[in-house]
Amino acid sequence: MIAPSASETRRPGAGALARIGHPTPPVDPADASPHTFPDGGVWRTEIPSVEGPEALSVVLEESARLDVPVHRISQGSGVWMLTDGEITEMAGACAARDIELCLFTGPRGTWDIGGSTRTCSGGAGLRARGHDALAGCVEDALRAAELGVRCLLVADEGVLWTLHRLRAARLLPADTTFKVSALAGPVNPASFAVYERLGADSLNVPSDLTADHLTEIRRVSRAPMDMYVEAPDDLGGYVRMYEAAELIRRGAPLYLKFGLSNAPGIYPYGAHLREPALATARERVRRGRLVLDLLARHGAAGGMSPLGARLPGRLRRFPVPERD
């Protein structure tokens, strides 16, 4: 699948600006990412914050109604916030439509008893504090995999490396993929490359990275990148719809994440948050339609991976010791 080149796409407002003599900065072909997904596509889609079977049903119905292709559904509250029946239902519904389901693993610092995450500095962020939190993430991963989930969301380097070692030892299925959380996302090329080598199969990068930052990352790594085109408020609330084509050009292979700003937080989710969870799930799909419409109007809609595609291709890893 071939993505449109920069010369084939229409940059926002360029024609009208040219007619009044207003210059448009030239596109540098050297900025473009040379990488693709293994299927040849350069972008995929993700609907985040789908917190349970009911919200998933809303997303599936709305994506069918608005014709929004979905490659991945992700959840933020965690495996431990879902019953076995709920996980099985979500995994089955996604499998029936060839959509990847990604669930967050275990305890994390922002919900832990430690107070450092509530200080002005943010402390250790979402990292798993101590052996017990690490073990909880492992327990979540094993349980989710047993129930049919093949994508796990992590927010800690040690958890990522541990799960990668479990995958290498076949204690997790070989086709399990690991996705790095936006709240732990790397902000420079060196850290991005380190996460890849620790076992990451796709990495959320903060939504305030510039297009130049994406190019810098692509000079050192081809691991798939996940980026909120619209970010929730706790990630900055950025709305970058008009940049979608340029984000793809610079950051491919890239998952376009359709988040939602100016919306209530719903983590950890429960029935007490049912109405906002369903309403925001529906609106995330609509935001996706807006982004896809923009790409189409600018001649940049080509290059999407086929639906059902989920694997990242061959990536670079640190050697895994047989035993420590």
Q: Could you outline the blueprint of secondary structure elements for this entry?
A:
Blueprint: H1 14-19, E1 43-47, H2 53-66, E2 72-74, H3 84-96, E3 100-104, H4 130-146, E4 151-154, H5 157-168, E5 177-180, H6 189-198, E6 202-204, H7 211-218, E7 225-230, H8 244-251, E8 254-258, H9 274-297
Parallel strand pairs: 1-2, 1-8, 2-3, 3-4, 4-5, 5-6, 6-7, 7-8
Briefly summarize what is shown.
The chain has helices at 14-19, 53-66, 84-96, 130-146, 157-168, 189-198, 211-218, 244-251, 274-297; strands spanning 43-47, 72-74, 100-104, 151-154, 177-180, 202-204, 225-230, 254-258. With 324 residues, it is an alpha/beta fold. It has an eight-stranded parallel β-barrel with strand order 1-2-3-4-5-6-7-8, surrounded by six helices.
Largest sheet: 8 strands, parallel, barrel
Structural class: alpha/beta
Report the helical percentage. 25-40%
Q: Quick check: average pLDDT?
A: 93
Strand content: 5-15%
Strand order of the largest sheet: 1-2-3-4-5-6-7-8
Unreliable spans: none
Give Rg in angstroms.
19 Å
Distance between the termini: 43 Å
Q: What is the global morphology?
A: globular
H/E element string?
Answer: HEHEHEHEHEHEHEHEH
How many H/I helical runs? 9
Question: How many strands in all?
Answer: 8
